[in-house]
Please model this.
Amino acid sequence: MIKGEIIQIGERSGLEYRHPRPEWSQLLEDIERSSFPTSDPEDLYNQTELEALTNDFPQGGFVGFDQGIPVAMGLGIQVFFNLDEPEHTVHDMMPGNGDSGHRPEGDWYYGTSIAVRSEYRRRGIGAELYGLRKTVCQKLNLRGIVAGGVMPGYTNHKNVMTADEYIENVKKKIIYDPTLSFQQENGFELLQALPNYIANPEIDNYAALIIWRNQNYKEEQ
Model:
């Protein structure tokens, strides 16, 4: 029997979502690596880092199960983030070496990973995970969600436009990007390019800074 309360059953996917547990860390690593087979392993979670995260901030993560098998996950941490100085890399947010990057007093939720096994894609799981993350922001009174959005379509345009120009064209719906366009449809703003965010030579190591603002956020008195 799987431990952990079912937080939600996906309306479209039918997956049972639970908060992550440390003993699932190897299974979660397998999901991450199978979802991003071309990524540098140094940019992905490993078992030790997942154990640290699931101990530090389990309520900020969700694992989707299909008939008892974990097939998807959405993970994140609380952070302090300055939108006036937004440039950062994935390792700035996820230091490793036992540090998950989670800061309990942080006022933003930073989305560190959404991973779905390839055979489960196009079932609405990404949108369900975004919805669960937004619920975390509302429950914890966080300003919103920040993340580095992968921009896979840039590989076809990088020789004719800058990363910022590409993001602007996606924002204006002139170009469709499989990831950024989906994130925009889910209420995220596409702000700017993040150079050297991850090791991905196909897109010249860029990601896009994306944010979702929690309209119910209340300043602490």
